[in-house]
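Q: Sequence in, structure out?
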Amino acid sequence: MSSFYPCTDHLPDSAETHCDDCGWLGTISDVEMIQSAQQRLSAGETIPAGECPECGACAYLAEPTDPAPSTLEVINLAQATIERLTCIDPNKRASAQGTLDVIRVAIDKAEGGAS
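A: Exactly. Output:
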């Protein structure tokens, strides 16, 4: 029988975990070592955070609660950064605006929009 304990050293002990089988909620410090790992884990699957202390099923890290920034938020941040930088040298505003336009086109292409 093999056991497996995923490397979670980079995570705070308070990182939230959950069990899809029984609904348990806890933290990374609550989960146990995964027993019979060779039979329970397959290549390409999401690696569990550990074993649920309530039912023994695999427990996983909770999804991040901070959503990824929207395209508009990224563009607004880039615009604000460019405005701050061009305050130092106003002659570079046209070049900075060109950079922002390139960012907009790249984001649009990445999202499957028109080029």
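Residues 102 and 108 are 10 Å apart (CA to CA).
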